[in-house]
Amino acid sequence: MKEPDLMLHRLTLNGFKTIRKLEELELGPVNVLIGPNGAGKSNFVSFFRMLNRMMLPPGNLQLYVGKAGGASTLLHSGPAVSPQIEASLTFRAIKGSNEYHFRLFHAAQDTLIFAEEKLRFAPNRLRRDAEATWIDLGAGQREPNLIDRAQEKNARKTMRTLWGFLLDCVVHQFHNTSETARIRQRWSVSDNQYLKEDGANLAPFLLRIREQHPAHYARITTTLRQIAPFFADFVLEPENDTLLLRWREFNNDVIFGPHQASDGTLRAMALVALLLQPTPELPSVIILDEPELGLHPRAISILAGLLLGVSSHSQVIVATQSPVLLDHFEPEQVIVAERDGAESVFRRLDAGKLATWLEEYTMSELWDKNVLGGRPR
């Protein structure tokens, strides 16, 4: 399988929510997290949401902490047990590895400040007895110094690469399809460059793709018809520089609006648009938390195919409870999350140890039999 040119290869994360100690978890092009409720899958995903918020200029770490309810809610078992969050991310590229390391320490007013922030590039040609030099980005700051340093005129390529990747690391979650959800409301036509994490600007996003990339738009609508055979096409007609998500059905002259769509249909529209957008515009990493919610098993199978297809260009991280979705992936693509007391434990499946089992059973059957783990205890 072809891999993305730049990919998060290894993650160390300590002191974040239920993740007390996660040492050098290796990540591949496709990473499917399974496990019982409360095992820590969503906490794993939310770390990437925090990373993305941190990197939005001029820095939104403090806003993220405040909205989360304060630093105490982010620190494993509170600041008395875990006074800091420590993370190391290693990104594998063609010519070497980019590394970003930081420590966030609990501070006054229940917030977080940087106790350490550094990065480095380790080229493949580096001698085995040599070690790449870290670039110190300082300590005591409330927002990442990487943001400003990466935007300097003579910024090192490593800084620009790391900041760009983390800025592009968006967690998409289309769970909120309630009557007041943003995806069901009008949205500015000009806000269309990328699909927002909740799909709020789906209509403007689709309009831009239809106008600029008609072949990709055709793929989106064709795929949606496999999920919802009644679907004919979107009706994307701006009014006063705003746009509402509307569509037509076959053999019907009625135009339907977002409040007439089922939750599953809206989620399918957003997922298909995200995964079938033009390749150069794909996020560096696609992160989805339980994307199967509200989808028919046939739609889940189509979703799995799209995720595998996109993984040659974007890294994929998916947390799921779906046996149907799991059956489309190989053991080495699966990470099992479990609870050990108050902390989350993550381990990647060993394909060799499961080879004999898989001669007679599917992945979902092995999950149900608790051969894989990741079942409630």
Automatic annotation (TrEMBL):
A Pfam family annotated for this UniProt entry: AAA_21
InterPro entries: ATPase_AAA_core (IPR003959), P-loop_NTPase (IPR027417), RecF-like (IPR014555)
GO annotation, biological process: DNA synthesis involved in DNA repair; double-strand break repair
Domain ATPase AAA-type core: from-to ranges: 30-327
Highest taxon above the source species: Bacteria
GO MF annotation: an example: ATP binding
CDD domains: ABC_ATPase (cd00267)
Protein name, per record: ATPase AAA-type core domain-containing protein
Record organism: uncultured Gemmatimonadota bacterium
